[in-house]
Amino acid sequence: MEAQTIDSQILKYLPMLGEDEKQSLLGVIKSFLSLKKDSKSTETAFTLDYNRELDEALARINEGNFMTQEEVEKQSAEW
User: Fold this and answer.
1) 66 near 60, Cβ under 8 Å?
2) What are the tens digits of pLDDT across the range 29-77?
3) Where does the source fall among the domains of life (predicted)?
4) Is 21 helix (H, G, I), strand (E, B) or coil?
5) Nearest-5° angle of CA 75, CA 78, CA 79?
6) Sequence spans of domains, the chain
7) Alpha-carbon distance 55 to 50, whole Å?
8) How do residues 2-38 score in pLDDT, each as one tens digit?
9) Residue 25 CB: number of other CB atoms within 10 A?
């Protein structure tokens, strides 16, 4: 369903609700927006942590602190 259609249907039905129902609906809308905000905040924190970890890994590589694939395979064979 298109957003314009949904918006028009909400506007059509909204006047049919009583005050208590409108308060309840408003609470639901606010809770949806709060969840959306929290989710975005979590995604932002995840992205910042991920980018920090990448920067740290690249710094280690640039310092020569890494193992080649062959070294990893040789080491893992000894396990």
Assistant:
1) yes
2) 999 888 888 787 888 888 888 999 999 999 999 999 989 999 999 999 9
3) Bacteria
4) helix
5) 100
6) 3-77
7) 9
8) 767 999 999 999 999 999 999 999 999 999 888 888 7
9) 14
